[in-house]
Amino acid sequence: MIHLSAKVKLLNGVSPLEGLLKLSRNPSLVPVLARERGFIVRDELPESEFKALFLPFASKLVPNVICPVYRLPKELEYLGEDDIVALTPSDSRIRVLYRKSSNQNSILLTERCNHYCLMCSQPPKDIDDSYLMAETKELVKLIPQDALEIGFTGGEPTLYGDEFISLMQLCKNYLPNTAIHILSNGRAFKDFEFARKYAAISHHDMMLGIPIYSDDPVSHNHIVQAENAFDETLRGILNLKSLNQAVEIRVVLHKLNIDRLKNLCEFITRNLLFVDQVALMGLEIIGFTRANLDALWIDPYEYKDQLSEAVGILSSYGIRVSVYNSQLCLVNKDVEPFYRRSISDWKNEYAPECEGCARMSECGGFFTSAIKNQYSKSLMPYKD
Predict the structure, then answer these.
(1) What distance in Å separates the CA atoms of residue 380 and residue 365, rounded to the nearest whole number?
(2) In this structure, what DSSP letter does residue 339 have?
(3) Running DSSP on this structure, what letter comes out for residue 131?
(4) Are strands 69-71 and 149-153 parallel, antiparallel or unpaired?
(5) In what order do the strands lie in the sheet with 52-55?
(6) Model confidence over 47-75: pLDDT tens digits?
(7) C-alpha span between 121 and 102 (Å, rounded)
(8) How far apart are the C-alpha atoms of 303 and 68, rounded to whole Å?
(9) Is the link from the previous residue into 287 a cis peptide, with omega within 30 of 0?
(10) Can you count the helices (H) and strands (E) in the chain?
């Protein structure tokens, strides 16, 4: 598991930095760039004057420079060229916002939400966290233009309204070649004018991941704990697709909806055949899922045949299907072509039972929270 935040110690008497900082390991970086970056010291001090220096945890040297010098925590010594961090002096914390070496950079825009999903991994808070939007707009300007993909999540990002639209436009302007993926419940797009503004950005590769948890409106609304959610989500999807926008339907699988999975897939093939992808996803055992675990938990081994049936229905109609957040030994062979290693590396682990599995490198493993709280007792490690 990769850590994305830690305490950081200022080693000299210079005023600490606050805000975003792009990092470098290049000691010969030209001065005009160096003055805006933090340098991660390995064996040599930089030739140019950097905005800050970060020393390895084991280093005893504190250079006599006028910029802030920090001790880099051991758990963050993986940081490298073009990574971006945020420094917060008030609690002496450094947060990793972007890692150039990763294709799994996900940016939290808000913890506010108009759903209260029973299995929410990021329980909503009724707070003013608009600083996250301001921080993200600065972050987008620093991300390298060769970034393959970035994701935006919440909470519900569209609660920002037109400010959300302006952020997506900013992404197009500063990251014209980067794919954008946004997690949203889709309800804001029931307003055709809002959907039109989103479409007008005309991004070459921007997709919304929108959940539908059941073909039955009552069941879906119960799972997301919001009235009219099913109807408004569908209207949002229809508006987006009428404007040729990319939409992925996300289905988190659990005890409350697994028995209607076949019905949901048939509903999609009848009514939403034009969506760009359907993702069938395992639970993340964190947040509200832990609180509602008795109502939600079902061993993936128990529904592997239902998963095969669902994949078969969707794929037979030409819909692109992906299976996320599962373990390779718990899906049938016919699902393997649709299986994806989807769990972000910073919250990914393997169970003790996986030790020695011949296919571990192909398997997506588990969320760290699953190892701590609940995972299948039916694991069957592959032998050579």
Answers:
(1) 13
(2) B
(3) H
(4) unpaired
(5) 5-7, 93-98, 84-88, 19-24, 37-40, 52-55, 69-71, 9-10
(6) 889 999 999 988 877 888 999 999 999 99
(7) 22
(8) 55
(9) no
(10) 11, 17
Least confident of 44-48, 145-149, 175-179: 44-48
Q: Which residues contact 361 (CB under 8 A, 6 or more apart)?
A: none
Instruction: Please identify which residue in the block is written with the tokens 């039955």.
Output: 216
| CA–CA separation, 96 and 85 (whole Å) | 4
DSSP 236-284: HHHHHHHTT-EEEEEEE--TTTGGGHHHHHHHHHHH-TT-SEEEEE---
Sequence-ordered list of residues with C-beta below 8 angstroms from that of 158, at least 6 positions apart, any chain: 164, 184, 187, 188, 189, 194
Q: How far apart are CA 39 and CA 242, in angstroms?
A: 48
Q: What number of other Cβ atoms are within 10 A of residue 287's Cβ?
A: 16
> How far is the first Cα of the chain from the last one, in angstroms, to the nearest whole number?
26
Q: pLDDT (tens digit, 9 = 90+) per residue, 2-55?
A: 899 999 999 998 999 999 999 999 999 999 999 999 999 988 889 889 999 999
CB 363 within 8 A of CB 341: yes
Give me the pLDDT at residue 59, please: 81
CB–CB of 138/184 below 8 Å? Answer: no
CA-to-CA separations, 139 to 92, 103, 132, in angstroms, rounded? 20, 16, 10
Residue 220: left if φ>0, alpha if ψ -120 to 50, beta else—which one? alpha
Alpha-carbon span 96 to 107, nearest angstrom: 10
